[in-house]
Each structure stands twice: as C-alpha cells, then as structure tokens.
C-alpha cells in the first residue's frame, strides 16, 4: 500500500474543482503524515475522540473534517478547531453547534446530511424537509451552511447508487447558491459516479490508506 501513489492516482481521477477529503479514521498518525507531507491538508474522521486526539498530535494547519454521525454532547470537543461538519442531521444539533461555535468566537461551516440510501440505519434529513431546514439554519449566527452531504446505500449495485446520487444532485441544483456550493458525495467505491452527479467534495479512505480493520 503506497499512500503517495494512491493519492496521485486519485488526484488524476478527480477534476481540479473537486475537493479531496482524505478519510484517515482508524489509521495511525504516521500514515496521515505521509499524506500530509505529500501535500494533502484536508483529513476526515468519523469519531470525536479519535479526531480530538489526532488534532492535538498532528500539524496544526491540517483542516479537520468531522464526517461521521455527531452527537450533541460531543460538539464541544471539536468546536474549537473543526473546519467542516459534514453530517448535520437535526435542527437540535445545529443549535448546539451554533452555541459552541459562539463560545469559541467562531463560525463553523456545516453540511446538511440528506437521507438518500434505502437503509434505515443511515442518518439525514428527508429530501422534502430540506428547503425549510436551510431557512431555519440560516437564522443561526455562528453557522454557515455550505452545502449538502449524502451517503449511498452500501451495495455493489451501480444502478441503485446512481439513482441515489441523482436524487441529491437534483436537490443540490435547487438549493445551490454562491455560499451554499458544496456537494459532499462519493467514497472509494463510488466517487467516479458521484463526480458524474455533481460532487464537489469526495471523502476517500481505503483507496488512499488501504483497507481498515473495522470493528
Ligand atoms: C469511512 C467513511 C468514508 C470513506 O470510506 P472509504 O470507503 O474507505 O473511502 C467516507 N464517508 C464517511 C461518512 C465515512 O464514514
């Protein structure tokens, strides 16, 4: 597994306007530093404790993205430094992020997660509630809603993934503005498909760092 080669390969495969989030969950700091020294500055983690620990130990110009499901009682730990929260799935969570951002004299960028998968276990707003949610979210003074995030169903069925990405792309085109310009879709297995559906930000882990030992 050559992290630098993998990064180069992916960069060749994504247009220059698409932002690459290197998903480093479960991977050691040494792997992150290898990517960092090759120029990668944006990393994504899905667990608060791991994210906080790595942020302390690694170079401070890294932009840390929280990509996983976020519990309200943990927002305070990442509020001082987090660069983008991908998976905001409730107004109550937004309220908490807004409060903790204000305590830190910050404005925190957020994406609203849209439920596009057929799996009930995945989180996110319903497509039909999103315009209303954006209106409510824009009333928070210490939050910037930068866009939408989605996760397709975990399947090899490309037709299904295609349908799900199509749904979020259509919604994105409706709500897109100069400020709300980010569509975070695409992971190792489906990022090329996601880019065909307007992705502006891909979250890639195993194609860079190798397979994870999932627990
Ligand atoms: C783990 C994870 C990814 C990256 O998955 P890979 O298949 O390893 O690329 C992307 N997004 C989220 C939300 C994740 O939890």
Walk me through this protein's architecture:
The protein has 215 residues and is an alpha/beta fold. Helix content is 39%, strand content 19%. It contains 9 helices and 8 strands. The protein has helices spanning 3-13, 29-37, 48-57, 75-78, 91-103, 130-137, 158-175, 191-196, 206-209; strands spanning 19-23, 42-45, 63-66, 84-88, 108-114, 143-150, 182-184, 201-204. The chain has an 8-stranded parallel sheet with strand order 7-6-5-4-3-2-1-8. Strand 4, helix 5 and strand 5 form a beta-alpha-beta unit. The protein binds pyridoxal-5'-phosphate.
What labels describe this entry?
215 residues; alpha/beta; 8-stranded parallel beta sheet; 9 helices; binds pyridoxal-5'-phosphate
Percentage of helical residues? 25-40%
Identify every distinct bound molecule in the structure, by name, code or SMILES: pyridoxal-5'-phosphate
What is the helix/strand order?
A: HEHEHEHEHEHEHEHEH
Largest sheet, order of strands side by side?
A: 7-6-5-4-3-2-1-8
Radius of gyration: 16 Å
Overall 3D shape: globular
Low-confidence stretches: none
Structure summarized in a few sentences:
The protein has 215 residues and is of the alpha/beta class.
């Amino acid at each position: 597994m050559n992290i630098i080669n993998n990064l180069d390969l992916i960069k060749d495969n994504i247009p220059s306007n698409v932002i690459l989030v290197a998903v480093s969950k479960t991977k050691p700091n040494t792997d992150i530093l290898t990517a960092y020294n090759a120029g990668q500055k944006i990393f994504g983690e899905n667990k608060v404790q791991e994210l906080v620990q790595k942020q302390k130990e690694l170079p401070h110009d890294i932009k840390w993205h929280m990509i996983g499901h976020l519990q309200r009682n943990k927002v305070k730990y990442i509020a001082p430094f987090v660069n983008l929260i991908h998976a905001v799935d409730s107004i109550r969570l937004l309220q908490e992020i807004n409060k903790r951002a204000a305590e830190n004299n910050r404005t925190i960028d957020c994406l609203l997660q849209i439920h596009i998968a057929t799996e009930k276990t995945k989180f996110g707003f319903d497509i039909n509630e999103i315009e209303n949610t954006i209106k409510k979210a824009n009333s928070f003074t210490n939050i910037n809603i930068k866009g939408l995030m989605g996760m397709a169903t975990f399947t090899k069925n490309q037709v299904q993934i295609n349908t799900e990405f199509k749904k979020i792309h259509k919604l994105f085109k409706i709500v897109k503005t100069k400020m709300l310009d980010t569509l975070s879709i695409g992971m190792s297995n489906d990022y090329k498909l996601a880019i065909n559906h307007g992705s502006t930000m891909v979250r890639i882990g195993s194609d860079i760092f190798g397979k994870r030992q999932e627990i």
